[in-house]
Amino acid sequence: MKRLSQRTLQSITIGLIILGVLALALSGLLGQIVGKVIDPLVAVQGWFASRTQAMVEFFTVPRDVATLRQENLSLQNQVSQLQSELLAARQQLTETDILYALLDYARAKPENKYVAASVIGRDPSPFVKYIIINHGSDDGIFKGMPVVTQQGLVGKVVAVTATAARVQLITDPGSVINVRLEEASTDGQVLGSVTGDISLDMVNPSVELIQGDLILTSGLGGVYPSDILIGQVLSPENPENALFQKASVQPVVDFVNLRAVLIITNFRPVDYSPLVP
Amino acid sequence: MGTLLAFPIIFILILLQTTLFSQVTLLHGSVDLVLLWIAAWSLQKQVRSTWFWAFLAAIAVAYISAMPWFVPVVCYPLATLFAKWVNKRVWQSPLLMMFLVTLVISIVSNGLSYIALAISGVSIPINTGLVQVMIPSVLINLLLALPVFAIVRDTAQWVYPLEVVE
Lengths: 277, 166
Known about the structure:
The complex is a heterodimer.
Chain A: H1 2-27, H2 29-108, E1 114-122, E2 130-133, E3 146-148, E4 153-160, E5 165-169, E6 176-181, E7 186-191, E8 198-203, E9 214-217, E10 229-237, E11 245-251, E12 260-264
Antiparallel strand pairs in A: 1-2, 1-12, 2-5, 3-4, 3-12, 4-5, 6-7, 6-9, 7-8, 8-11, 9-10, 10-11
Chain B: H1 6-21, E1 25-26, E2 29-30, H2 33-43, H3 50-64, H4 70-89, H5 94-119, H6 126-159
Antiparallel strand pairs in B: 1-2
């Protein structure tokens, strides 16, 4: 009986303590008490942790910096490599675009045979307008063959070696091309100049020149095939009492950024010099 | 070594001229890098193979260019001749000599090019040729004369080191 009453008393005491703690917890007073007990411990823990971290860093950070530097260098190398690859890819993309355009042109005119060539240089003299291409007689290119792009006429081959050729552009001051005007239905000549501009000349003064009229090769003289686009009439000049009309011409080919061309290999220019008295 | 060096250097100069410098223009005039090099090379007192360089450059340019062949064959040796002549008279002022040789030989070269084209039947209006090509070419040659001279002088000192007199 006595033992039972003691145990009961203990249980009641424990129960009362639990209830008390619960009451303190529910009332919010327990947090303050626990905080006052734990705060010094947390402070000690924090102090200890920071010192431990400092010691760990002291031993490990130098190694990490070296690793980071190595990684940084490696990443910089990768970036440089990727940038150069990107540039090469862009370059290839541009070349592919040009080649696709040339291919489309070649497909559109299947009666001709073409050899595609890259422009590898320009004449060193500022007085003449010639380009050098990377295909020559080894690729079936001969003197006199017309050179075009997908846009229109570029010029003709004037000198050939085994692996390269020199092309006279239609903008060269020595270039003269027999042409016809599509709308005006008349013939004329397109002349080059030292400034790289081209002009229309030898047009019958009775014909009305229309701005924007297309200029195509006429095929007269046998130097170029007929119906290759050259440009558009830009500003007609019809001075009174002049024997012929003139006009400046907007060429369709961008001669400044010429990078790839097509050589028409199945066209043979007519050599009519024996007929000249 | 100075003679052998002519082959790679003139090759590189012509490469640069036909690819890069033919597109660097002032109006429609462009620099003649080979001519500048030959002029500057001929002005170096210690260089002994100037005539070989001049004729090699002349033949190479005559082969590459569509201009009448005698234009570079006359102009480049003439540049050497003039540079050597000036070198004996205007000593101790190499930069002045370089500018003088560049000015004179650029005018001669452009004038001869114009005459050669006119003879071969290519008519260029004198006014257009002068304003658009000749004067800009002379100016751009003068602009690049100084850097070319500096490179040539260093190359000449490397190939023909000057002996130190004690």
